[in-house]
Design brief:
Strand order of the largest sheet: 3-9-8-4-7-6-5
Order of helices and strands: HHEEHEHEHEEEHEHEH
CATH topology of the domain at 71-231: Rossmann fold
Strand content: 15-25%
Radius of gyration: 20 Å
Largest sheet: 7 strands, mixed
Shape: globular
CATH class of the domain at 71-231: Alpha Beta
Length: about 240
């Protein structure tokens, strides 16, 4: 996809600069300072990173767009930062899935050694299917960051994105307790959970992630069932969670 023109200072030339040229030296120093300042700002605040640096793909028009600055999106990011367990019912065009992919990409980028699971009803076979498509979105975000940010090498294959310098990893997985127990996760995103056949079993298997200090985030279009129960803090059987 074509990249949106940026208002950032352009990245320095890949060639060795002419250090005898004061203008070239000052330009390189300015870019280096700007890069360090931005990276410190974004490492401290995922919402600043998303608002300033992240592009999304409008899958209806095919256009790349800046991330919208809606108050409810900022609130979701703050709740995600504060909460080990988060369940969100969504409607169409809220771009909550893009938002949650973006915060998990931020976590992988700035927290070395993170292991992040993107769960969907099916993993899919192509990068456009199931949870593979969620990992593809993370790669899209990575590829469309401003050039002024520090380059970060990644290995990408269908369903897997790895930061090769820090070994942070984002994986695509399907619903099911076996897949949920397969790794120890830093963060988990469960997408369209209301339509999973094994939602309860997957959630129970993932609970040690939150109990061990990680994050579980469930998001879905509204539908009756287990997802509805956790959104409204009702345990199976209709009891209200204490």
């Amino acid at each position: 996809m074509p990249r949106r023109p940026r208002e950032f200072v352009p990245a320095p030339d890949a060639r060795v600069p002419d250090f005898s040229d004061p203008i070239a030296v000052r330009g390189l120093a300015a870019v280096t300072l700007l890069r360090r300042t931005l990276e410190e700002k974004y490492e401290a605040d995922p919402w600043a990173f998303i608002g300033d640096a992240v592009l999304t793909l409008d899958q209806i028009s095919g256009q790349t767009k800046p991330f919208p600055q809606h108050d409810y999106l900022r609130l979701v990011v703050r709740e995600w930062q504060a909460s080990p367990l988060l369940a969100i019912a969504k409607s169409r065009r809220m771009i909550l899935t893009w938002l949650l992919v973006a915060v998990n990409y931020w976590l992988a980028r700035y927290r070395p050694g993170s292991k992040i699971g993107f769960f969907a009803r099916k993993q899919g076979e192509k990068e456009t299917e199931g949870s593979n498509e969620l990992v593809w979105r993370a790669k899209f975000i990575h590829d469309h960051l401003p050039d002024v940010l520090a380059p970060r090498p990644v290995d990408y294959s269908t369903g897997r994105l790895v930061f090769t310098d820090t070994l942070s990893e984002i994986l695509a997985l399907a619903q099911g307790p076996h897949q949920a127990r397969q790794y120890t996760y830093t963060s988990v995103l469960c997408d369209e959970m209301a339509f999973w056949e094994q939602a309860l079993e997957t959630y129970v298997a993932l609970r040690p992630t939150a109990e061990g200090g990680g994050k579980i985030t469930c998001v879905s279009s509204a539908a009756p069932g287990f997802f509805e129960q956790i959104v409204f803090d009702r345990l199976p059987g209709g009891r209200v969670a204490a």
